[in-house]
Fold this protein.
Amino acid sequence: MPTELEELVGFIANPNPQIRLLATENLVPYSTSEPSIFKVENLQPVKNLKLLVKDHPKIAEHVVTILVNLSADRDVLECLATDDKFLDTILGYVIQPTEPNANLLSMLLANLAKWDAFKSVLSKKQEPPKELASGDLVLNQLLDLFVKGAEGTYNKTADFDHLSYLFADLTKHAEIRHHFVTKQDYDGVIPIAKLKVFTEHKSEVRRKGVASTLKNVAFDVPSHAAFLAEDEINILPYILLPLTGNEEYDEEETMAMLPDLQLLPPDKERESDPNIIQTHLETLMLLSSGREARDYMREVKVYPIIRETHLRVNDNDVKDTCERLVNVLMRDEEDSSGKARVEEVGHDEETRGADGVDDEDDQIVEV
């Protein structure tokens, strides 16, 4: 005989909406404590849950929460991420300005990006609502959702912060990185330039996801010149600002720094999360792989900022990366024999998800 819990799982598909509501609400905690109960009968409960994403918003809230948690399981993740009809449904819902579960759908999308084939989202298209005006490419719609969500100007119930984790995982793929550095026809903007401004946002989730996205996109070596050019992507000040606190530099150093790094307020605070600091330092390591970039970073006095970060952040990984970066920036480029002394660095680094670990250890968001 089925247990009471197994019977409860069976009520997911009950034709009575009140029973479905009670069943899904009571099953939410078991999606983390006993996820195996949803994998019976060849994942039939999961297949039922996928259909209920379209149910009444309150039922859908519990359903999406369960799916966010269950997507930590590889079998469930595959079931969700390879179902095009299901993906089209949640992508269509998340962009609606009145969708009450938009934040949960953003978390689910971020988890689904752990499945490599999810990168096919790059080619997906759908008609946007008039409030979005982002063209028909889904990835651009998600980027603009993320931007508008920062100030709550699109959907009053959603900030879309977890879309930054989606972008972080998607940019582990070269074709997605290429998209992020390509000016888009519909608005004439390079996508990565929309994200750089959030490196000091109040949301730690947003800061973390954006930092990882910037780092992953920095693996696109041909774009490094554009990354650093003030009239193009101009990413350097947005990476350096989180590394700076209220310390004072001598006048010569200050005057040579980028304008955004000069005359910072006395209450300026350094990024509080050492993992985010570490990610920004790794981005600088990647950008320093070319001679022109290294010369530019020396010219605008990146070294003093890294020196102060090394002194003031009590984290071994941060200190180690600071030392590596200082070694690259402060060594002579050539020895007496004319051979380059500074090695090309950074290209053997792993692209990372927003949690700062490589693919096989990526953490799934849970609710």
